[in-house]
Write a structure and sequence with these properties.
Two copies of one chain form a homodimer.
Chain A lengths: L2 H8 L6 H9 L7 E2 H11 L5 H13 L4 E3 L7 E3 L7 E5 L5 E4 L18 E12 L1 H5 L1
The structure holds a DNA duplex.
DNA sequence: CGTTTGACTTAGACAATGTCCATTGTAGGA
DNA sequence: TCCTACAATGGACATTGTCTAAGTCAAACG
């Protein structure tokens, strides 16, 4: 689990208590927290950590490619530590639950040249929407 | 072009100058304006229109299925009047330009049961990212 | 046509999310 | 241990969106 901390230190990232806490909070599969949620959990471990620091640190982790920004709903950005396996997202339209998914096929290949308008297309982002077992059962 | 206005009136929508202006602003292909941009253009035609009315009207158009909400960037929601032909979006990572695109294939079929976590999946949203001709040339 | 009525509009306060900056603190090297 | 550049802090500010109370108007009715 300190994989992340090791990698960061190896990249010359200056290690501080605050950064360690943020990195610890963002750990695991199917983790998609908002900045505020990250802050709340960080405060539980390190009460004096500030909002600005959480935002800064998240921004840096995104720049370093260690964490992905996800915008599945129109509210807050979410942060996804699963940056090293490419994946897409499945979102419950009712409760907002999010799962990482790995579809087969390559959507990039499905966009004909005539539909590219001269763009250099480099990336695709796919969001599946539906109801999770809980919400569908109700 | 008054297709939209006709349809709305037919549905018992009370027609006001403000609503007409908003509907007129949202007209055309590849139109993806933020609420603020809609407001700015509406004010040009009807100076006393208020922000709240623009938000209300956009929300109603979305509820009626006449306009789609698009969240390609993490900033503001955008409103897409092209609601009657299903499509996806191609976004310039630099300048934010957006084009409507129609990929071949069906991403829904590419999500195996084992990757559905018991969800009832009903919809997919695909966002291609890259550089538009202008930004790539620079 | 004039009245009437309830839906629509308005302005501005408020809320949620995110950014910026000047000041203070500290990790890690010499 | 001391220095210094980099990081953290807190609070002001910005952007986007929501809500409410009061005024206004579209359209149905006579």
């Amino acid at each position: 689990m300190s994989d992340l901390l090791e990698r960061l230190r190896g990249r010359g990232w200056r290690m501080t208590a605050q950064r360690r806490v943020v990195a610890e909070v963002l750990n695991g599969e199917h983790v998609h927290l908002t900045a505020d949620e990250v802050h709340a959990r960080a405060v539980a471990k390190l009460p004096e950590i500030s909002r600005a620091t959480v935002y800064n640190t998240l921004g840096e982790l995104v720049s370093l490619g260690e964490v992905l920004e996800v915008t599945t709903d129109k509210r807050a950005k979410r942060y996804d530590p699963n940056a090293h396996r490419p994946h897409h997202h499945l979102v419950c339209a009712r409760c907002g639950a999010i799962r990482d998914v790995h579809p087969t096929g390559n959507p990039l290949a499905d966009l004909p040249d005539t539909e590219r308008f001269g763009f250099t297309v480099s990336d695709v982002e796919v969001t599946y929407r539906g109801l999770c077992p809980n919400c569908a059962g109700a």
